[in-house]
Each structure stands twice: as C-alpha cells, then as structure tokens.
Amino acid sequence: MREVPQPQPGLDELVGMTLTALAEGRRRRGGPLPAGGPSRVRAAVQAALGASPDRTSLLPRTGIGAAAAITGLVEALAAGSADPADPWCAAHLHCPPLPVAVAADLAVSALNPSLDSWDQAPAATTIETEVVAALAELAGFDPDQAAGTITTGGTESNLMGLLLARDAASNGRLASNGRLRVFRSTAAHLSVDRAAAVLGIDTPPVAAIPTDDQDRMRVDLLRKALAEHAGPVVVVATAGTTDAGAVDPLREIAAAVEEHRRRLRRRPSSAAPAETGHPASSGWLHVDAAYGGGALFSDRLAAHLDGVALADSVALDLHKLGWQPAPAGVFLTPRPDGWPSLRAAQADYLRSEDDEAAGFPSLLDRSLRTTRRADSFPIAVTLRALGRDGLGALVDACHDLARHAERTVQADPRLEPAFPVTLTTVVFRYHPQAGVTGSAAACTAERPDQLNDAIRRALLLDGRAVVGRTRVGPDRAVHLKLTLLNPNATRADVDALLRLIAATGDELAGGYGDDGTGNIP
Ligand SMILES: *Cc1c(COP(=O)(O)O)cnc(C)c1O
To answer: Domains of the chain (ranges plus CATH)?
Structure first.
C-alpha cells in the first residue's frame, strides 16, 4: 500500500530546525575544524548523504523528507566545516559572516530575484545601483558618475578590470601600435594572470614586478618596465596582498601610469586621435583591493588606500573585511562609459531600447553573468545596520588582534616574523631553539620548511587549528600565517594559538632526529 505523504514543514519550521542542527553540528565538531583528516570527514559526510558504494542512495527513489534531510545534512555540514567563527580558524581570508547579513541572505534566497532584467528584480535593481554608488563614494569616486557591479569576488572583479582596460585600449586604437600588456607585482593574486589568459592578453607573458621586503610593488622597477614598453598597459596594483596584507604605493603607481600615458601621447606614431583617445586607452590602473578594500571603513587604516580614487577600476571583496556571506565581490569604475564588450551582445528577451526609453533600467550590461543573485542585499542591510563606524570598529578589532599577535611573535625566540603587520595578517615561522637537543636543532635548521609544513598539518589533522602557510622571500621559505578576520576573537585566543604552534614545533623538532630517519613524523 502506498504511504500517505506527510505534510512537509514550512520555511519557518525549517529555519528553526536549521539553527538547531547548526548548533548541534558545531557542538559535535568541538573545534575549528573536524578532527581526523580527509578520510574521516569523507566517511562521515557520505554516511549523512546516504551515499552507499553503489552511489544510488543520495538520490533515493523516495525522498526522506525535508525535516530529516535538513537536520541530518546541516549537522553533517556544520560538524565537518572549517568554521571561521572559531578563533583558531585563522588561515584564510574567509570571515565569519554577520548574523544580520546571513538573515538578509535568507530573504534573497526566499525571493530569488535575478539582476539580469528589471522585470525579475524591480527592487533589487535599485538596491544594487545604490550599493555600488555608496561604495564608489567610499572609494573616493563621484557616485553620480561611477559605475560598477556586484561580483562573485576578486576573481571576477579582476577579470572585469582587465576586460574594461582591453576595451579602452582598443577603442583608443592604440592596440595596433603595440600590444596591451599587464604589469603586476610578484605578490599579485593568481586571478590577475588567469584573467589575462582568459582575455588573450597574456602574450608576451604578464610582467611580474618584484616586491620590496614588505611585499609591496617596487615602483622604481615598474617605471623602468613601463618605459621599455611602447604600447598600452594595464597596471594592477594590490591593496592588501593575499599573503602579507601589504598595500602597494597606490599614489606613486598612479603617477607611473600617468607618466606612461604622457609618454605615449608624445610619440606621434602611437598617438590616438584626440577625440577617441581617452587617457585610459594608453594606461589603465586597476587596484585589486579584494582584501584591503575593507580598510576604507576604518578611520585608522583608510590612509593605506590613499590614491585608490586615481584608479580606473577597483575590486573589493566584502566577504573578506566586510563580514558578508560569500559571494560579496564589488567591481567599481569611475568611468560610466567603459563597458563596450558587454554592451555588444544583446538579447531581446532581456533588454530592449523601448523599455529603457520608457524608464525601465537594466543592469544586464554591467555583468558577465546573466542570472545572478541579489548579493547586494545583505551588503545593503549591513551598511544600514552597522554604518561606517560599526564596520570600521570590526576592521580595527582585527587589526588590533594582528598587532598583538605580532608582538607575541616578536617576544617568542622560537617565532620569527616575516613582514610588519599592515592589515590583519601575521606571517612568521617557527625556528627551534635552546631546549631542543643540539643535533635536532642543527637538523631542523637545515630543513625549517618541512618543520613548518609539519606544524600546520599536525594541527589540521587533529582538528585543533587552521593556520595558513605560504612561501616568503627570494628563497621562498615556508612560513605560517594567521589571517585574523574574527572580530570576536580575543588576545588570549591569539596568544594561546601562538603557544600551541610553538609547542607543536618543539614537539616535532624534538622527535625529528630521534627516530634516526631524518623524517619529520
Ligand atoms: C581573495 C583575493 C582575490 C580573489 O578573490 P575571490 O573573492 O576569492 O574571487 C583576488 N585578489 C586578492 C588580493 C585577494 O586577496
């Protein structure tokens, strides 16, 4: 006999179940990430998914019902997550989202507006436009002129920046006189090179300008490299390098781009006709402020971004220093006219000139995507709820934590800092010291990379802490890093984490050499 289908719970009941299951999953996890490493996590998640070896039960013939599915799977997700709300989850630029932003995100999912046409998103179209204007003003652009779009993150924003730069270069008819070339520092994000590759502007290869000892672009070397290139350029400056949180000298870089524009104008062979030769056609400055853009909320740190308003385009990520659920990327440009590639392709079903003439706005040409969520909405709610001071206080709290961590690192002879703190990242490495037997100390001194690798992995495997790792300097030495984006973490949390890292290093350095294999256990 067929079973009578049970009534399915409504959204209010399901939200209640979700919150309960989140708490239960977190309780089961008991730390910043699940213990036991990938095989244990995989087994637990597969069990919750009902994923049997024949792979049929994740999609059963008859469903298990909303209550069982949501409870079981939310618990498994929470228990198996690296949770940025835990003070010892400090590796990546992945932040604990504000409850107010998560609540707003629920409304977006429930209403599901799509920004590709006004008749799918009447309110959300205005919300995105106003969020872009407010953030453009924060960056120092004229909000009535500036344009932009909400993106999936720095990756898409960097692609947009390079796309607009390429359009500007070809409109100015400079491309025929020399290929558009991308200049970025060696510390730039990998998405810059990917964007260049996608757009076909990667030959000759992107020019990588060396950085100084604080991870900032060497502007003297940029000037030299620009002087050797006779064609149009895009310079990508980074405001908040992913590893060190360093900010390139934006004002000086803008001056170097301006110098390049003037140089091209003086060359008669490459001069664009005056009426089409917008200055940006010969030199475009894109600022990748995916990480550092949040400093604009802080009275204390905003000065680091001095010069950002001289950019032709800017990338910001509010799912980093902005405490939004991802995705909350923002792309801004002070030039409202610069979107020809996107305008070139049209579809009558989405946009028509008669609708626009009748006053129906369209954001279709502002994004590479067609269907897209109203990710501006949680941002709008957060800006209203906290204001600039509220967000600035969160940025400052994380900056305070990073400076405190820096002092603790400096005070511990086993820990060696790599860069001064600019934003909220602390990069350092463990060095064995007195207390470790002489031969072990000598061995590990030759192989500090493996030792620092081993510290990170040991903490990861037993679920105690998520610490970042990168390579620093000309010898690309392995370093650890704390990316502190949790404003609720305390100084005591940070000190205890650094003690745990050093103690783990002592333990591993002591074991190393003892087993006679030369391998770090
Ligand atoms: C995080 C980051 C990106 C990439 O942003 P996504 O949001 O991950 O796409 C780009 N540039 C910098 C400097 C970043 O820190």
So the answer is: 11-80 (no CATH), 114-373 (3.40.640.10), 388-510 (3.90.1150.170)
Nearest ligand 1 atom, CA 291: 15
Task: Give me ligand 1 centre to Cα 392, in Å.
Answer: 20
Ligand 1 atom with minimal separation from the 153 CA: 7
Out of 242, 286, 331, 423, give the residue to mutate to test ligand 1, the one with the largest number of ligand atoms within 8 Å of its CB: 242
Entry pTM = 0.93
Whether residue 32 has its Cβ less than 6 Å from ligand 1: no
| Contacts made by residues 192-195, CB under 8 angstroms, sequence distance 24+ | 192/158, 192/162, 192/236, 192/288, 194/155, 194/159, 195/155, 195/158, 195/159, 195/161, 195/162, 195/163
Question: pLDDT by residue for the chain (521 residues), tens digit each?
Answer: 566 666 789 999 999 999 999 999 999 999 999 999 999 999 999 999 998 776 778 888 899 999 999 999 999 999 999 999 999 999 999 999 999 999 999 999 999 999 999 999 999 999 999 999 999 999 999 999 999 999 999 999 999 999 999 999 887 554 444 589 999 999 999 999 999 999 998 777 789 999 999 999 999 999 999 999 999 999 999 999 999 999 999 999 999 999 999 999 887 554 444 434 677 889 999 999 999 999 999 999 999 999 999 999 999 999 999 999 999 999 999 988 778 888 887 788 887 788 889 999 999 999 999 999 999 999 999 999 999 999 999 999 999 999 999 999 999 999 999 999 999 999 999 998 755 555 454 445 558 999 999 999 999 999 999 999 999 988 899 999 999 999 999 999 999 999 999 999 999 998 654 444 445 54
- Dist. CA 441–CA 124, nearest whole Å: 60
How many Å lie between the centroid of ligand 1 and the Cα of residue 202? 19
Distance (Å, whole) CA 423 – CA 246: 7
